[in-house]
Amino acid sequence: MMTKAKEKNEIPFMRKLVIPIIAGGLTGFAASVGVVNFMDGTFGDDISTSRTIAAIVGALYMIIAIGVGIGAASPALGEKFLNTEDADEIREMRSVLIYSAAGMILWGGALTILAFAAPSGPMPAQIALITTALMMAVGSWFGWKSHNASDELFARVNMEATGIAYVGTIVIGGGWAMLAHLEMAQSLAPLDWLTLIYVAGLAAAFIAAGKRGMLKLK
């Protein structure tokens, strides 16, 4: 009996944690390698670390969003890798997940486009500005729709994540700015600040969800 119970507990652990982490890690690594190789071919020797990191972060946003979107569109498939009780819970959260996924794809795409924009990139600055401004605006609208469709718990997590991201950006970005002002570190480029905001937002979402116990295996 003990052996059967242990095996039963190991199944959700493997399915909900180990397998998604391995799959996500491999996907993220493959995407990062693909982005770097593509940028090498596009920029050649003119490639910068700021652009590379921004493109990778933007791609990761889109990969996460695609995974969430697929899970929301197909609850039977989503329950195999999303941390939910079952497919019914995904159906209840479908609108929230789809809105969030749409927003993340647009935000991630906007950051990736900026990484390829002029003056060093192939995309003209004016086109990049108009495109990314529209993508960020529509992405923010989807984010607002997701917030409005959330239940009380998710709404609180969103607000807490916003606060954590704000503090994180102030502490890390502000601390770096002070060091740069004192000529003890190199100043962050404008694209670095955007990337920092993106990373802080993603990290804050996981921190807020973890504080609420939403990352526990189900």
Automatic annotation (TrEMBL):
Q: Which domain of life is it from?
A: Bacteria
Q: Where are the transmembrane segments?
A: 54-75, 96-117, 123-144, 164-182, 188-209
Q: Which UniProt keywords apply?
A: Membrane, Transmembrane, Transmembrane helix
Q: What is this protein called?
A: Uncharacterized protein
Instruction: Say which species the protein is native to.
Output: Erythrobacter crassostreae
